[in-house]
Design a protein that fits this description.
There is one protein chain. The protein has 235 residues and is of the alpha/beta class. The chain is built from five helices and six strands, in the order H-H-E-H-E-E-E-E-E-H-H. Strands 2-3-4-6-5 form a five-stranded mixed beta barrel. 12% of the residues are buried.
């Protein structure tokens, strides 16, 4: 019934060992696993920070929170539009920054005439640094509801938190290993204690306050008589 031809066309023939069939499928599976296509919702400020980080580190890849997305998603308002023969040049603003954008028109579309200043657009593409920093759009559409702008900002925050969490998980074991290696390979040197040069002064005895003199009270009964007798004898 042509069954053998069907299996042979799919790379499986009767009589082949399982190991041989697995070996034949391994390269294609590995190629599919290595291909990572990821989309990341971002803001213009996030793109500017990624460009600044790449310039400071000297790396070729543009990383966002430690990851390298292949496609970026942006929702922003159109400030200006310049229509040329086969492209649209726009200035986008999403309240976090302002950036130039360019979209090459491959076929005539009626919705492109609706892209005017003041409208919000949703675009996907990548960041280019030449000839100037701009967002190279692979696709663009008109935002029909204001909720899309809010949803996009929520997705941006959620993606940033998730990527930062994964980045911290990857960096914690690395920092722990580096600290342990530094501790065991380069132990800290104990510094001897420096004795104090100032001699301890002996404690001074507490000063004793002089006894208070008794207050003069009223004269007793015998004192007037002694005074009278002294006067009489003197006379």
């Amino acid at each position: 019934f042509g069954g053998s031809q069907l299996f042979a066309s799919q790379g499986i023939a009767f009589g082949d060992s399982p190991a041989k069939s697995a070996a034949a499928e391994t390269p294609s599976k590995r190629a599919r696993v290595d291909e990572k296509e990821s989309c990341l919702p971002v803001t213009i400020r996030a793109m500017e920070m990624a460009l600044s980080q790449r310039a400071s580190t000297g790396e070729d890849a543009l990383k966002f929170y430690g990851s390298e997305p292949s496609t970026l998603i942006l929702v922003a308002a159109v400030e200006s539009v310049v229509r040329q023969g086969a492209s649209l040049e726009m200035t986008l603003n999403d309240a976090t920054g302002r950036m130039k954008a360019r979209f090459f028109v491959t076929e005539a579309a009626a919705y492109l005439d609706r892209i005017v200043p003041g409208r919000y657009v949703s675009a996907f593409g990548s960041v280019r640094a030449a000839p100037v920093v701009h967002f190279a759009m692979n696709g663009v559409r008109i935002v029909e509801s204001a909720d899309e702008v809010s949803y996009h900002m929520i997705e941006v925050a959620h993606a940033a938190v998730r990527l930062r969490k994964d980045q911290n998980k990857a960096e914690v074991p690395k920092r722990a290993f580096e600290e342990a290696a530094e501790r065991f390979l380069t132990p800290e040197k104990l510094q001897p204690a420096v004795p104090s040069t100032a001699a301890a002064e002996p404690a001074k005895p507490a000063s004793v306050a002089p006894a208070a003199k008794p207050a003069a009270g009223p004269p007793g009964r015998g004192e007037p008589r002694a005074a009278l007798s002294g006067l009489m004898q003197g006379s």
